[in-house]
Amino acid sequence: MCPRHWRMVPRNFQNLVYRYYQPGQCELSPMPSGKWHAAADLAIGAVALKESRISEETYERIKAKAREALASGSCGNE
Ligand SMILES: [Zn+2]
Questions:
Q1: Which of 48, 25, 47, 52 is nearest to 36 (CA)?
Q2: What distance in angstroms lies between residue 7's CA and the mean position of ligand 1's atoms?
Q3: Distance 45 CA to ligand 1 centre (A)
Q4: Contacts of 6 by beta carbon, 8 Å cutoff, 6+ apart
Q5: What pTM was estimated for this model as a whole?
Q6: What digits encode the pLDDT tens for the residues 22-72?
Q7: How far is the CA of 4 from the centre of ligand 1 (A)?
Q8: Domain-by-domain residue ranges, the chain?
Q9: How far is the CA of 43 from the centre of ligand 1 (A)?
Q10: pLDDT band at 76 (very low <50, low <70, confident <90, very high)
């Protein structure tokens, strides 16, 4: 995500992305966790909603799915 869009991400979602980021994951070593993907989905969804690229309903679905992933298991990998 470019800096302009990153600045549109709500602070609590930015914090989640940082919390579940693991050094090396951009090189897939380790693979990004399910929880990081959930946090990334929230960040992308929030920007997409702000830019009217998705509906409020789609955004609610993204949030419900992410909430489930963030609440599950200890490592978050599927
Ligand atoms: Zn961008």
A1: 25
A2: 9
A3: 13
A4: 14, 43
A5: 0.88
A6: 999 999 999 999 999 999 999 999 999 999 999 999 999 999 999 999 998
A7: 6
A8: 3-21+28-71
A9: 12
A10: very low
